């Protein structure tokens, strides 16, 4: 501004009291407005005013503690700063408040307080004579101050230039400040620099109170000198010592002080300051594809120009670190010895022949073609059958790295594809992060519980997996964080699921589904003695010389304490036995160290054989009864010890006990946990011909019940079925109640149709269904039996329950080839194509009304 111009502030100003700092002329400050008095000022003056004068307010520093602020107006500081409200921002969170951006204009003195509410209003006297300030264009012509003031002004200017010179000139703010030193009038420098350097509010208040320019220079110059000395000390402490065996790299232009250097080891220790040269060598040595290399070099160029103080510096550096750590060209060599792979798979897992055969096929093809893409396999089966462990075994067989990704409950597609780097806290997805973890580009990835993916507002992760699990697309998988393509074609993906029903069809179509069925009792015995028992002995610090579990005991555990498709419950029961034996062994060690306990201290139950089971068979019976000596080894678990440890039997063979009345039959059901037997009960009473269904049934099962009822009514005369009063219509004057026990479990599906027909036929005829028969199959209104799924799981469930005859649809006869030979030998399979054959096989001696009731339908002989 010219010398004959100036800024005249209004003689009356509203006062804004602030606790947050001291606003000096020529500086800009953000002030938070929360008190009621200041809120009224903003609403009534700044927001409603239309003229320029309405945006000029007086800012008074409030020295009172804000915690003790009251409604009474505090004693006002006599000097304040007139400021121009440049910006007003309001918010309601966490409570209503405003944020003001105010630029200081000049000092004023409070002459008289005119009013206190709703906000203070005062008559003020302008102190800074703004007309004495010279413009930059006239500075060369205007004479500077003389005498002591001129000397102070020159010293202050030189100190300011020295201070700015010690800062990093590549930072835009620092370069702008250096230009301002030459363009601003000398009179404004004390206020501007005092607001920028590190000073306390008390020191700034002293600068504000310095009305005369000479006093202002004297107050500010020591603060400037102190800041310069602090920077010199900082440079001195950060300057490294130069050793003969180390080379010195000049610091790049960035957010550090000029002249600062870092020593770096010859090996490239990137833990010291400036390691962009080391990072550049890593980028060029990562053997990444050309598109990824171009992106990294571009980001590296940006990083060199970026000061370390910028938030984007850390984001860019983390991105480059990830890019150089990814295994773009690192891979492991597959072990293609098929014989060794077969031996390793057989030693790790018993049974599972289909899965082992598929792995060997992959190895054989890899021998013939080295560039084979990794297959996308999906193991589907009940829990506890070893789907996850067989994936780990496959990785060990191939000699590859293994990485498991748990997908259960994942509902954000960013978990698969990653977040874009524009977001705060962005990170790569689980696929890229897994590759970084294993360090090779051809690992075995296990996508666990792929059927339990969720969906939310953050996207559908199942849809994000479509690109990952598509062999035609995953050679250029693009993670949102990387934003460059990565080749996943050499990764062997193995997904696991309990059921395919919840997997989207598009995702299921991209995977090769391999069914992993439940184990037979004989297979469970082998698995227990080959894997589970040795593992539990090791986990509990026991040895085979201390504990032995015979095969008969293992069979009792399987049949009477567990009923599952897998072996998890079996392993838990074996662990309970090991813990009980560990107590005995520990007590034995304590007794050996001290004298033998008296006879009264023998644990309760020892006289019933418990002590005998802890001794060798050839020892006399009275040894353990006389004194509590340590048990001789090994401790053999028999059926009595089993009951003492695990308690009463959990499962009993109750099939024959529950089929003692007409109207009861056994059906077979499939669940994600494996096959199950299902009892179906029916009763009738006088009524109006209504059919009641209970047991939490689905719509399909309810329709099957109505189908069964309609077929029996249409064939009542043929099968000599009557109602309660002897009529030919089974529903005339009769209500039927059909119940499926275990009512807390939801049931649905068409496979219970033949069981419902058999139950109702038994109820209406008064004949008992054979107690050793279980059945499954869908029915039609014309009496045909249609095929169903899950035959192997259902047959294994019937075998576990002690059933001897299984009725299945004729068209499911091909599924019997998957059933183990030992199970087929113990069961009679009846294949039926219509309901006549089902009823003929379900009742002893056939069913009345059949043309040849004593001739069984197609019976598949025991193989």
UniProtKB/TrEMBL annotation:
GO MF annotations in UniProt: ATP binding; ATP hydrolysis activity; ATP-dependent peptidase activity; serine-type endopeptidase activity
Residue ranges with Basic and acidic residues bias: 607-619
Keyword annotations: ATP-binding, Hydrolase, Nucleotide-binding, Peroxisome, Protease, Serine protease
Region of interest (Disordered), residue spans: 592-629
Primary location: other
InterPro entries named among the record's database cross-references: AAA+_ATPase, ATPase_AAA_core, Lon_bac/euk-typ, Lon_lid, Lon_proteolytic, Lon_Prtase, Lon_prtase_N, Lon_prtase_N_sf
Residues reported in the UniProt entry to bind ATP: 381-388
Signal peptide: none
Chain span(s) of sequence motif Microbody targeting signal: 861-863
Residue ranges occupied by any Lon N-terminal domain in the UniProt entry: 13-228
Entry similarity comment: Belongs to the peptidase S16 family.
HAMAP family the record matches: lonp2_euk
Protein name: Lon protease homolog 2, peroxisomal
Organism: Oncorhynchus mykiss
